């Protein structure tokens, strides 16, 4: 008889297929009554599989008295303290699938800068709709000579900055403190940086300090000729302020890879022409997904063999 596991959310399809080959997989997201399913399998489940983004919650732990391992496809960043404490208090091992995504995310970030400033996605819709027959499209903006203001110059932020320089852009940054090992101009005041940036890009973690950091005042400072890109998390920007700025064209456009209530995207954004939208695609490449899948499978293989898991979350 194959061991039973509970998958909380969908994961990369080839990895899920391999899990189903090796184990009996109960899929919580397909259940009409998820709580009833958890009660049904509670006596036989020792392993939960989830994603780093969805992670796990205290209620899952409390509903599964035999739970020993939570295996994450990806890295469970930003977990609420009470949920982490619930797992730790029960001695439940939590694993991740560490990978190097800095270059991958930076590539997409630079792609959104290019797509937004050069109006690539807007142009695609323009051609498909037949509007080109009636006249030329709205011109985009050159990247060369423009200033990219990066909110959060961590590992990914630095990779984005390097790519921006290749396009001939000048780079400045904002964060809690200046970085002594970079030559880019530092702005302690975000509103001031937004004022000198042709494109403002968020790549910071979501914390109590960064929640809503891009507010109406910052967007006003970006101005009607400026652009905003969000590669961080949806709530770092004031949702209604951004929608209003795009609708009223008090900023020139935006490129968004993250949203406030994923995968639900506000209708107002879907209807606007001056915004490029991608589905939280930063690390969504086949190479990254396959690496994460191999590590999830390796963690489960080690656990069921009675060996230490390979990639524990410290």
List keywords for this structure.
314 residues; 2 domains; 12 helices
Offer a concise description of the structure.
The protein is of the alpha/beta class. It is 37% helix and 15% strand.
**Relevant CATH superfamily of the largest domain:** NAD(P)-binding Rossmann-like Domain
Percent helix: 25-40%
Please indicate the percent range of residues in DSSP E strands (runs of 2 or more).
Answer: 15-25%
Written as H for each helix and E for each strand, in order along the chain, the element string is EHEHEHEHEHHEHEEHEHEHEHEH
Distance between the termini: 32 Å
Number of structural domains: 2
What form results from the Cα inertia axes?
elongated
Mean pLDDT: 95
Low-confidence stretches: none
Main sheet: strands, sense, barrel: 7 strands, parallel
Strand order of the largest sheet: 8-7-6-9-10-11-12
Overview of the molecule:
It is a single chain. The chain has 314 residues and is α/β, with parallel strands linked by helices. It folds into 2 domains: 4-99 and 287-304, Rossmann fold (3-Layer(aba) Sandwich), CATH 3.40.50; 102-277, Rossmann fold (3-Layer(aba) Sandwich). 37% of the residues lie in helices and 15% in strands. The chain is built from 12 helices and 12 strands. The chain has helices spanning 13-22, 34-41, 58-63, 81-89, 102-117, 120-128, 155-166, 190-196, 216-222, 239-247, 267-270, 286-304, and strands at 4-7, 24-27, 47-51, 69-73, 93-95, 147-151, 170-174, 185-186, 199-202, 227-230, 253-256, 275-277. The strands form 2 sheets. The chain has a 7-stranded parallel sheet with strand order 8-7-6-9-10-11-12, with helices on both faces. The protein has a 5-stranded parallel sheet with strand order 2-1-3-4-5, with helices on both faces. Helix 1 (13-22) runs parallel beside helix 12, helix 5 crosses helix 7 (155-166) and helix 8 (190-196) packs parallel to helix 9 (216-222). The longest helix is centred in the last third of the chain and has 19 residues, at 286-304. The protein is elongated, with a radius of gyration of 22 Å. It starts with a strand and ends in a 10-residue tail after the last helix. The mean pLDDT is 95.
